[in-house]
Amino acid sequence: MRAAAENPGWSIVVPVKTLVIAKSRLADLAGPHRAAFAVAVAGDTVAAALACPAVARVVVVTGDAIAAEALGRLGADVVDDPQAGLNAALRHGAAHAVRLAPGDPVAALQADLPALRPAELATVLAAAGETEESFLPDAAEIGTTFYGVRAGLPFRPRFGGESRARHLAGGAKELVLPGVASVRRDVDTPADLADAAGLGLGPRSSAVVARMWNPGEATLIDVQATVRSFDPNTRSGSVFLDDGTELLFDAAAFDAGPLRLLRSGQRVNIALDGDRITYVTLSTFPLPD
């Protein structure tokens, strides 16, 4: 257990929009998968942040029930969005984080970082820990993907639009770091998504992108899911992906694996070929090569 006074971990606040308005600039590309993509991207962002050794907790601020459930299952502490704008949501989440751990530094992280790497986030957090108030610009150097303050200092995020200039004007130090492309690559447009794919998307985003980009092609992807239902007579059932998408599996997919039975709520590893599940096994078992 980390001793907060000796080595405090960061509280990371992640704001997640209501899904009906999320990723509007990707609407044409994502089509019916837009909401699922938004949850998947947020899920990969949160999972990567939680996997970073410098992070003590992730606080998600959202007013969307589907996103709240999916991100809560990953281990995030979810609080309701006060619906007063992005920066108000961040301040609300930061206040919650301070109540949980008043001795820990607090940071805001955008929710649309599908290629986020824990090691690169650790680099950013180490640099942020060297200054009172800091931020990391996005890949376009117009917006901001990260903003952080040391413990006990005012939390004054200035996200939205040309936020890099506003953070600079407000006195925050700009972090200029090599090797942190995944922390800077937020995704708002198809071009952004292509860049993020070049860095390597997280598993949840990859699964949805496969359905967006290759609906009729064989694209094998390995992801985790939760069993929704299973019929032992037909050896078929359904699972929920972590973005909330429900997928069916048939007897062939079940028989391809080593299992004899499944129960609702079990975590499983699945292999996807587009939208079709081809293999099902428990999350503790490896998938075939």
How would you summarize this macromolecular structure in one to three sentences?
By secondary structure, the chain is of the alpha/beta class. 33% of the residues lie in helices and 25% in strands.
From the alpha-carbon coordinates, what is the Rg to the nearest angstrom?
A: 20 Å
Got a strand count?
Answer: 12
Trace the largest sheet across and list its strands: 3-2-1-4-6-5-7
Gross morphology? elongated
Helix count, DSSP H or I runs of 4 or more residues: 10
Topology as H/E string? EHHEHEHEHEEHEHHHEEEHEE
Strand content: 15-25%
- Helix proportion: 25-40%
Q: Biggest sheet, in brief? A: 7 strands, mixed
What is the rounded distance between the termini?
36 Å
Mean residue pLDDT: 88
Question: Any low-confidence stretches, pLDDT <50, length ≥5?
Answer: 1-6, 215-220
Description of the structure:
With 289 residues, the chain is an alpha/beta fold. It is built from ten helices and twelve strands. It has helices at residues 27-30, 34-51, 65-73, 86-100, 118-128, 163-169, 181-184, 190-199, 203-213, 251-256, and strands at residues 10-16, 55-62, 77-80, 106-109, 133-137, 144-149, 173-174, 220-231, 236-241, 246-249, 267-273, 276-282. The protein has a seven-stranded mixed β-sheet with strand order 3-2-1-4-6-5-7, with helices on both faces. It has a five-stranded antiparallel β-sheet with strand order 10-9-8-11-12.
